[in-house]
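Reopening: Tricarballylate dehydrogenase still failing for me.
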Amino acid sequence: MAGHVMIDTSKHYDILIVGGGNAALCAAISARRGGASVLVVEAAPRFYRGGNTRHTRNMRCAHDSATETLSGPYYEDEFFEDLLRVTGGKTDEKLARMMIAESKDMLGWIVEQGVRFQPSLGGTLSLGRTNSFFLGGGRAMLNALYRTAEALGVDVAYDAEVVGLDIQGGRFKSAKVRHEGQEFVIRAKALIAASGGFEANIEWLKEGWGEIAENFLIRGTPYNRGTVLKMLIDQGVQQIGDPTQCHAVAIDARAPKFDGGIITRLDCVVFGVVVNKHAERFYDEGEEVWPKRYAIWGRLVAAQPDQIAYIIFDSRSLDLFMPSLFPPVRADSLSDLAHKLGLEEGTLSRTLSDFNAAVQPGTFDPAILDDCRTQGLAPPKSHWARRIESAPFYAYPVRPGITFTYLGVRVNEQSRMVMADGTAADNMFAAGEIMAGNVLGQGYAAGIGMTIGSVFGRIAGREAAIEVQSPSSSSLQTASLEFA
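Support: Ran it again with your exact input. Result attached.
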């Protein structure tokens, strides 16, 4: 009986998949449909399975026409232009173009695996044309993939952490897995690493960021500690990316240290001013439409004193964005607001009066790059600049919220890991956050993490199944027919 298992070392699997999120499950389903026997080991307990996929809402895929759930076409070239813009050109163009081309097919494939989509929710970064939203969110999407994988005969072990890898000459031999208080050695003909980044490993974050990483909040799972990534790099897999590059957004400073998820993100930067602990502005809040720029704010706040900032706006903007889990700090006067935030009242008053004086007349329109801007102010506010004057006044304290890290392993177009000497690994593949740095050198566009996981997961599973050349059994064909 497939499904949740105790590890049985007498059972020989074709493919071992490390990780339990979107990338791992797409790989497992793809490999199983390709005729391979598969064991998925997930370090988290069953309830917390799925890494950061639990917190997602949508994925970004190219498509040539509107659908029941997408408001219009999103062509491959536009997707690539968006990727180039957010990464500043720091992407492997060949892999990125392949991923975008393959993403067109993913929308149909993922539905075939039991996942359902819905039209975009109001106020979600205006993504109704480009991004497909999961009905019931990321956890529902995960549950559908697990149901399909288990019905196809994929075995899954929870609370199963990989603590050692035996790799010889670029070839995977076995993994040591800690499970139920014991250590097991699991041999397999191929390995697929889909175990996420190292964002929950504060010590590792500090290697790149220094002490300021202590003030970071981790939006995602506490289980992504980068253990497998470190082992792979230590054993000769080529590293890609910069240890300080990551998907980092400004999130509510009152969020928990881990697992705050999407409900702690704040989408109101463009409607207000953002000041640091010295009550001074430090960046153009209206630089670009929010889906294309929201992921720069975590890094910007990280560079401020004590890694804290405050988004300040007035009553006119309160209903223009998706509310966060926590209510904003409210005050009837700006001096009272300064007091509640612990900011120096005179400086805040001066910052806001300078801002108000610089605002030019224009037609406010939150849906487009409007003509409401400041003049003679540094830094400027390029769009959506409105005087902050209508009481009551509101503020959100924000800190950098790290979603996932980009330092990872290099892969080729078959999702095979590339060794430090440039040769492709024999039987080792990677998908998802652990190789996201191939596509994301820096920056982020909403929903692209799920695209990377699904596309490269499916490829890794397919290629690993070909690699192990497992003859397809009649029972598998029956299962495939039931789920086609």
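The CA atoms of residues 31 and 462 lie 5 Å apart. If you still see a failure, please send the error message rather than a screenshot.
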